[in-house]
Amino acid sequence: MRRMYLLLAVTALCLLDKPAVATPPDGDPPVTFRSDVSMGRVDAQVVDGASHPIRDLRVQDFILRVDGKPQEIRHFQSERRPVDVVLLLDVSRSMEPHIRRVATASHQALRALGEQDRIAIMVFDRWTRLCMPFNSNRVGAERALESVLDRETFEGGTDITRGLLDTASYVAENARRDARRAIVIVTDDQTERSRNEAAVLRALTRADSVLSALIAPDALHTGTAYRRTLRFDDDRPRDIFGDQVPPWYGSYPMRRPRTQSAGTSQIANQSGGDSMAVDQASAFEYTLARIRERYALYFYLPEGMQPGDERSVEVLLSDTARRRYARAEVRYRRSYLAPNGGNDTGHERPIRWVSLQR
User: Which domain holds residue 245?
Assistant: First the structure.
């Protein structure tokens, strides 16, 4: 029935060259099609005090503001839409047991995705590599994760900001336009390179993607500098990680490169996503399930807004909905970037493809 209304509306627009209004059933607001107006979309997730998704909200339960001004929600979707998600794996030193945990849980976790959903797999240390492009093959994704464990040495450094920028660029260029987009990063949040939350958030906005983070403990305590302890095998000095050190090094202490937090959890929260510990039971599955439980709010772009313009967005619950769910939290990206009709990702760095052929 909904498709019939939409078809009639579009037909009227084509024949009369006038605005056409479709009034769908079930109390949803009318959808107005106008040739001179573009529509924007904000995806929002609403969770209760225990971070469980609230699924029974309607359009009248939301308040939408753009640049502080109330905007009418012209169309509202609560049903699940297709999802394109990238699983981004930190394969730097100390991350192997955590990536193995995710790979082990993948058979069950990937069941949270629907038949129309796609997943891609990327890895990073100081460089970003694409292991599997967007694909709906769950078995292929499981094999790709196994290949990561077989091929990666887990001995490199780490640049989380670069990994996120590269992945956002891949999403912007390769994700489907009509799909919800998400990046799930598995990392200990310790980076050797500079931290740039603003750049990552803008890249996520360009990609129309949220970030969800599975955070591993900083097992090597690299967030603080510490002395390198030596041991000797076959008369060759090695450190506690098995790395060989120069013969002249003797017994002098040595410091590993100091790292710092990349702000991964903060970026995830500001993008409209969330973060949780990777070692929590069903963390991977739960994260994928929550990505799919989002509301889509459509609105007319403010007058004069040009392609590429950015606006601040605010999504709130109405007073009535707030009384029903006193501890509810609305998660959404705080900015909206008008589409420019192209693939302007603001990022030109090529991403290396890693063949999975054995």
Answer: 224-257
